[in-house]
């Protein structure tokens, strides 16, 4: 097995582990938000407003699963030597949209929570992180698109 095959397999295994980790976090998140006190309605996390982070978290979970499915399909294509293909570009587009949607949920959550409680900066930082990931994926998508054009041009030349 070549080095690139090993890294692809390792990455594929990590993406598949993320399916489990995201599912586990869906179950564990409400419990992690509870304080040490026995009151089941007392939540603690960022600035004491953790309970309001549950709703945005659950809103982005389907987006996370959609992005993981796309990553899984891209890695499967790479294992099959389908690299410079329009299907991978479409999958990268979907990942970009999922990151942007998650960023939008984070931004809306920040605006709502900030309007009520006047500060909760961590939510806006997460939103910027999601937007940055969308930007990175978009750059990779544009590189892939250009590589496909060059490949098709070379195939026609030969």
Span of the ends, CA to CA: 30 Å
Envelope shape: elongated
Radius of gyration, taken over Cα atoms and rounded to an integer in Å: 20 Å
Stretches where pLDDT falls below 50 for ≥5 residues? 41-47
* Helix and strand pattern: HHHH
* Count, helices: 4
Strand content: under 5%
Structure description:
- It is a single chain.
- The protein is mainly α.
- The chain is built from 4 helices and no strands.
- About 4% of the residues have low confidence.
Main traits of this protein?
158 residues, mainly alpha, 4 helices, 0% strand
Short description:
The protein has 158 residues and is mainly α. 81% of the residues lie in helices and 0% in strands. Helix 1 runs antiparallel to helix 2 (51-79).
